[in-house]
Design brief:
Elements lengths: L5 H7 L6 H12 L6 H8 L8 H13 L3 E7 L2 E6 L6 E5 L5 E4 L5 H11 L9 E4 L2 H7 L1
Parallel strand pairs: 3-5
Antiparallel strand pairs: 1-2, 3-4
Helix pairs in contact: 2-4, 3-4
The structure holds zinc ion (2 copies).
The site of one zinc ion has 8 residues, from α6.
């Protein structure tokens, strides 16, 4: 997927390419961790001053409806967005403050191979997310 440009991906998914959509998609693609709409807004503010937060929500909704981007609710008031099908990354998420850290390797590749042998499935993807409390939140609750 890295070799494909935004434009090709948009075309394939029947999404009209606009500069703002490309900026949002590129940012999500380049990010190691899922981002909230607010984080996208802040990061893009320098490049694209005219883009409002509601525009970003609309753009994200389009991506989600086309299956390009996944929306996940981490805490009650925090939803994050990540591009689907980009190799894969695993995350550990603080369920109190919503902090997300990307793991630098996949811990279950061996297990996946064993599972394929066992089940005769051709496994094409998996999801694995860890949830808990980060060190700062643990300090606060002590
Ligand atoms: Zn935390
Ligand atoms: Zn993995």
């Amino acid at each position: 997927m890295e070799s494909k440009s935004c434009k090709e991906i948009f075309k394939k998914n029947d999404i009209k390419a606009t500069k703002q959509r490309e900026l949002v998609f590129q940012l999500l693609t380049d990010s190691d961790v899922p981002l909230t709409a607010e984080e996208i807004y802040v990061k893009l503010m320098e490049k694209e001053k005219n883009m409002s937060l509601s525009t970003i929500y609309r753009i994200l909704d389009v991506f989600v409806s086309k299956g390009l981007v996944q929306k996940s609710n981490i805490t009650n008031n925090k939803a994050v967005y990540e591009v689907l099908g980009m190799g894969h990354k695993h995350h550990i998420i603080c369920i109190s403050c919503g902090k997300i850290i990307a793991l630098d390797h996949c811990p279950i590749q061996e297990y996946e191979k064993a599972l394929e042998r066992e089940t005769e499935f051709n496994i094409t993807s998996h999801k694995l997310v860890f949830f808990g409390y980060c060190s700062e939140c643990r300090k606060k609750s002590e």
